[in-house]
Batch of 4 targets.
Target 1
Amino acid sequence: MGPAGEQTLHAVPPAGGAGPRDTEPLLRLTWTDPVTGTHGYLVVHSLISGLATGGTRMRAGATMSEVEDLARGMAAKTAVFDLPVGGAKGGIDFDPKDPRAVGVLERFCQAMRPWLDDHWVTAEDLGVPQHLIDEVFARIGLGQSYHAAIRRSADPEQTLRRVRAGLDTPVPGGLLGDVIGGYGVAQACLAAAGSWGWPLPDTTVAVQGIGTMGGGAAWYLHEAGMRVVAVADAAGTLYRPEGLDIPALLDLRDSYGEVDRSRLPADVQQLPRAAVIAMQVDVLVPAAISYAITPDNSYDVAARVVVEAANNATTPEAEDMLSARGIPVIPDFVANAGAAAWAWWLLLGQVGTDPEDSFRRLRTEMRTKVAMLLDRWSTAWVPPRQTAWGLGVDRHTAQVGEAAVEDLIIP
């Protein structure tokens, strides 16, 4: 199909009356890179006001079914947090450490331009940091990855300035746009501790993955007074039973979220990568890859609650097995939805550049939702995921396809 590469399009009409977990996606699209031959995927699960939101990830081995699951999760996130958009996701089957990766990402975005221009608001995800996708958008003439929403505003330049100012606001731990998702995950963990009356200094946490999301969660949990005893990156698990010095540890990361072992304190134990799943802790935060907890390793989980920071971190079968053992799972479309929710609050002018406004709103909404999920778990043994589907999903589903493109006003 020309220099942008080959595309295969599969449009599927949405089923009426079912929630995001039950419906077929609106669109599945497969792209073939003309240079490397790799495949990229776009799945639009649903459109509301002609828009869908969801990040773009890059990893070797990415599949259409994975991207479809992620798009379905995005539709659930937008429903739970009452955002006026549908859900989508992009994925590229390529190693982000390969020197050709930026070129692959740029060609993928160029090929997806009809959707990125009008309908799909994307952002960072696994293997694709926000600054990189914004650089690519600028090179192809779309300005910034929120372009499809920004172009609808009365003053796109002013809206773009507001978005960039919000993303680049310095806060403890980094830039607001980089840490807000991890902050939301931390608030989900803190809500769990609060629901069960756990004293924070005695509450232990293990975090699998310390990139943008996991690193942010670990930083804010440490700041709140929880004891983060283990973190894992691609090279292994780092463990200190008294608690790790998280700020110092994060300073040792490279651009891929891996810690320089040569500079570790002597009292930090180095364990195999898989050891983090089996840590005897109160809270396990899988923040690295999808499908990290499976039926094969779910019985190794010794935590009292699992808080999903990675998308689809737990397979459905593994989650059922954990629930049967009395271990609730706070689902990703609640726990890690903070970045997506905040981006739309920023786009819609509901929060500004004062970070405390953003932190306060996300803290309030996340803690309220997680407390509700765990109350249902504690009193009626209802899995948190089941309760979460009821938080606006049915009402949100009724909006799919009904609102005109012009109905969403971006100030």
Target 2
Amino acid sequence: MNKGIFVTGTATDIGKTYVTALLVKKLREAGCDTAYFKAAVSGNRRDEKGSLIPGDAAFVKDISGIPQPLDTMCPYVYENAVSPHLAAKIEGDPTELEKVVWCYEKLCGEYEYVICEGSGGIVCPIRYDEKIIMLEDIIKALDLPTIIIADAGLGTINSAVLTCHYMKAQGLKIRGLILNHFHKGDIMEEDNKFMCRQLTGLPVIACIGDGDTDIHIPAEQLKRICTSGGEL
């Protein structure tokens, strides 16, 4: 049985990579052999040899301290800072779902947990030519439950509720929400936390403040979240 979670967000640049790094770090510190995986990542720089470096993967590796080789983390790496479907049109090498699944399953055979990160928000075209692959297609192919990352500030009620409704309509399993850039005691952000729970029917699993180096989820709870069929 594969153990893991798919991290998506209400928008791009919402803090998915930062939160994912903390989730991986939490599992590693709990003694779990944990890997990171992202099917397609764009907006990357080249090293001195001209090779593209998957920046999100490098960040997670640095923050979490996992020894996983960088070249096993992202099968599709693009240079242009645009949606993966457009980056592939510009650069070539469009995403193949079969390769994504093969790379993921290989990690599942080598690690106890695999934490996957999505590209952009939930409505993200990964490939759009003679084949159409949306982000939800990858989540379904990997058969993973999800966590939604949302900003704690103004507008998050709307974006969180719409994201949840879309994902539920697609038949995706949602474990809960994590609020990023959270300021404890802020009246608006505390109310956002309450309203997100009320209007989505989902738990707010954790709130993360700027500069936090730990995610306040008990390791055993996180393990349950990452287990297929597991409850909070």
Target 3
Amino acid sequence: MHSLYLPQHDALVHWHDLAGTGLPLVCLPALSFAAAANFLDVVCDPALADARRILIDLPGSGFSEAAQDFDHTPRAHAAVVARVLDHLKPGPCVLFGHSMGGSVAMALAAARPDLVHHLVVAEGNLRPGGGAASRGIAQQDGAAYPAGGYPAQMHDIRAKAISGQPFYGFLHASWRLADPGALHGNASGLVDLDPELEQSFLNLACPRTYLYGAKSLARNVGSADVPEPELLRARGVATEVIPDAGHFMTRDNPAAVARVLARILAQPQGHRSF
């Protein structure tokens, strides 16, 4: 694991950097998840074995420290990711963001197009409103959440994990590492998402691919993180559907996600397919 100190936030940000060749794949995780938990099954798939894979823990999530004087918006997280990539100097990358990480990836591509060769968003929020999880957290009082709402929520998640519900074991493992204040801030940042993010994403010049879980596409089209495919395709965004998967497609069907990413990584570096 690698780290970089951010003096303006008095925080260490950490990431994994798995050796490989060609275009680097940079992975940004969902709401306060550790990047390894979010992406390990994807990046360890044989389809990606030869790629350089960089998995970044956002501030206050995974192994990264909570940042001081930080507003937890996708734009603020994007600035931190840019600092890491400027430090690493990997060149333009395939930037892959899942859920909240997708919103961060969109903000980064808009602010620093020099860092992004191809943007891949897996059900990232385009519009304000958030998903059910972020809304449930954001509606609680931010000052009281770390000592009140967060322990109660984690107690409920742990009980469901103990009862044998696999997803809640996965959720418990990630959110027990998260800083509670950062978790609330991240959720609020999605609920109050910059309303200009959608148009910014649609106007990007870089190649873009949006991934849907088939189950999400069947139920939630038109929500903040499941935009209408026709809208995206009309603006030059390629779309892919991950079979047998919902919002957490990186867990539901990691091999299918890996195959899509491998195809994108294999495209010639001058490729601009829309």
Target 4
Amino acid sequence: MSWTALGSALERTLGLIVLTYIGALALGIVLAVFRISPVPPLRAAATAYVTIFRNVPLLVLLVLFTFGLPNVGLLIPLFYNAALAMALYWAAFICEVVRSGVRTVPRGQIEAARALGLTFGQSLTRVVLPQALRSMVQPLANIFIGSALSTALAAAAGVTELTFWYQQQANLGGQPLTAFAVVTAIYVAITLTAGLVAGRVERKVAILR
């Protein structure tokens, strides 16, 4: 069993997780702002995006990006191609989490911000989002865990991450059960760590209420 290859696969997996989540978080927040925007075309565009991407299987999206983008002249390395597809997919879910979090903020807070002369953007960044964050910690952590586990699908797109490494070990007959146990333990460690961090953040935010 190749431990050097395992280290490289783990590095790619972690990189894929970070790129996917950061991209999804940034785009998801923008989409959520569009969905609660007073501008009808922005609301319609964000609603259409969320509806489409939440109803397309991630594996289908990965295959579409892997084989479809080269046909239109966009040659992106498989690693970044997979990160892009997964970020676009999970952004739709983050958008709904942020939008739901915004709804937990009492309407009186928003009206008070407007009465003070704050613009829509100022009200959102200074009043609404800081309060909404309290209810978004655990849902965002759940999406992080889901996106981390979904990186295993990148193996189908040819990305040499952990699942791809396991498949190679199984095909070569190099202790497939051991390789499976190692990969499973790594994924469990990632998800448990994320859950523990989210729990601490949630408790800290609750104290600040």
